[in-house]
Amino acid sequence: MHSLLALSRLIDAVNARMGQAASWLVLVVVLISAGNAVVRKAFDISSNGFLEIQWYLFSAVFLLAAAYTLQKNEHIRIDLLASKLSKRGQAIIDIIGTLLFLMPVCIILIMYGWPLFEKAWVSGEMSSDAGGLIRWPVFLLIPVGFSLLLAQGLSEVIKRVAFLQGLIADPSEKNTDVHKEPV
Question: Which residues span the membrane (predicted)?
């Protein structure tokens, strides 16, 4: 189990860095959006490329930060049932939900997203809008983002199994180092 916890720590570290990097993209999107609005209003000049890069970057923020959001236990939950269960019961529900729902969906989206990226890469697909951008970078975000989410799902399963075995603290608690032994 200790090697699996080491893998979990590695996955957590990678996704923490990706989440932090994605958060900086929000600032980039705001600056591009504001710059585009100023140039459009002041000089009556606009570019579809500026509009497209905004949605490319928004897609990057969403897809690259999803795993980080899962890691921080900030994803949306419906705790109607789970809130009535013990911490062990909640961990079991998290394991089952991750294995039966999250991971299969990630695998399917990776399997369907990779060919989209390959086709756009090989063909050099461009936006049909005048001044539009190449499409492969945004298509690459799909398999990359869901691969990160799949890996984080694996990390969460490892942590919850370790919690159930009494090896680590409750991974659903915020602001704790879950990889430390419980008190």
Answer: 53-70, 91-114, 134-151
Cα–Cα distance measured from residue 107 to residue 99, given in angstroms and rounded to the nearest whole number: 11
Q: Is residue 58 part of a domain?
A: yes
How many Å separate Cα 149 from the centre of its chain?
5
Quote the number of domains for the chain: 1
Residue numbers of the domain that contains 49: 2-164
> What is the Cα–Cα distance from 11 to 8, expressed in whole angstroms?
5
Distance CA 54, CA 48 (A): 10
Indicate if the alpha-carbon torsion angle 173, 179, 182, 183 is positive or negative.
negative
The C-alpha angle 105, 109, 114, rounded to 5 degrees, equals 155
> What's the pLDDT tens digit per position in 16-72?
999 999 999 999 999 998 988 898 888 888 778 888 888 899 999 999 999 999 999
Q: Is the pLDDT of residue 9 over 90?
A: yes
List, in sequence order, the alpha helices (H) in 44-173: 48-71, 87-97, 103-123, 136-164
- The confidence score (pLDDT) of residue 183 equals 46
How far apart CA 111 and CA 92 sit, in angstroms, is: 28
Asked if the structure places residue 10 within a domain, the reply is: yes
User: What is the predicted pLDDT for the residue at 60?
Assistant: 94
